[in-house]
Amino acid sequence: MTGISHTAVLGAGVIGASWTALFLASGRSVAVYDPADGAEERVKSYVEQAWPALTELGLAKHGRPDQVTFHKTAAEAVQGAGFIQENVPERLPVKHALFAEIETALDPQAVVASSASGLTLGQMQNGWENPARFVLGHPFNPPHLIPLVEIMGNSKTGTQAVEAAEAFYQDLGKVTIRVNKEVPGHVANRLQAAVWREAIHLVASGVASVGDVDKAMSAGPGLRWAAMGPTALFGLGAGPGGLAAFCDHFADTFNGWWEDLGTPQLTAETTQMLVEGLNAVSHGVPVSDQAARRDAMIVAIQLALRHMEQPE
Ligand SMILES: NC(=O)c1ccc[n+]([C@@H]2O[C@H](COP(=O)([O-])OP(=O)(O)OC[C@H]3O[C@@H](n4cnc5c(N)ncnc54)[C@H](O)[C@@H]3O)[C@@H](O)[C@H]2O)c1
């Protein structure tokens, strides 16, 4: 474990509750602040439900689910914490007010990471007197199961803060990447947005149904992408000549496809089309059951990949 044994989670909804479970599993204590009624019960129940998957993944060897405390203010919650994960609603005034409240209560070495998906680091830094210890630490939902964390600092961030965040997340078993330039959506969400845009276009233009487009992804490229990224995979797509040969063979093909890709908007009509298309294949199975099935599959894929890396 890195030197950080006590953490804080600010905002414990979908993302904060999941981070809480992972931090606890790693053997750290967690101080939670969330002003919503019933937050404590919801977080405890989330942690209880997440624990079996964390155990199966080997991420809960050192942890105890009861090492969590709940606090009346954010300033109280951050006291003594070496790492603070912020997950309050995606609204700048809410984030700024929180940063202003905690800034003077932080330990001198504490690092604060924001889970923000849409707001940029620069926008959030404006809420600090001194943003040196503040980084972006953007997870993928649910953070206790999906390894990726996108980390970003900039010229106003202390190098130490970025490195400390990276070491902390890696110690939790996360896979980290660095985002070097500020763009909306960071990296992974932009990739997702690009693929979803074309998925919607294919349905809207009558090429295939929602169910079949989803199937084309999960039974096709999605399966390969769980193993390797798109550029590495295409490096394997043209024999011993590798990526250079692939680009040489397929430049015209890809350039032609890119020109033809769609640019739909997520309007009310598009939403209606997608909802109807999804209902046709989900057969009324409740969202919670579908989510549980997704989580079980994510665990199984990761266990299979880990087995490849460390065969028994
Ligand atoms: N949901 C996702 O898929 C996802 C993925 C990655 C990152 N994120 C980011 O994580 C952050 C949280 O998103 P979420 O989906 O968990 O939202 P959410 O609405 O589920 O949770 C937000 C929580 O913050 C609490 N809260 C409100 N005001 C607060 C305050 N002043 N101090 C402390 N807590 C407060 C709310 O009571 C709520 O429990 C956002 O910045 C979002 O962009 C979300």
Task: Please give a structural write-up.
The protein has 312 residues and is of the alpha/beta class. It is 50% helix and 12% strand. The chain has two domains: 6-178, Rossmann fold (3-Layer(aba) Sandwich); 189-309, N-(1-d-carboxylethyl)-l-norvaline Dehydrogenase, domain 2 (Orthogonal Bundle), CATH 1.10.1040.10. It is built from 13 helices and eight strands. It has an eight-stranded mixed beta sheet. Helix 4 (92-102) links the parallel strand 4 and strand 5. Helix 1 (14-25) crosses helix 2. The chain starts with 5 loop residues before the first strand and ends with a helix. The mean pLDDT is 96.
Features:
eight-stranded mixed β-sheet, alpha/beta, globular, 312 residues, 8 strands, N-(1-d-carboxylethyl)-l-norvaline Dehydrogenase, domain 2, binds nicotinamide-adenine-dinucleotide, Rossmann fold
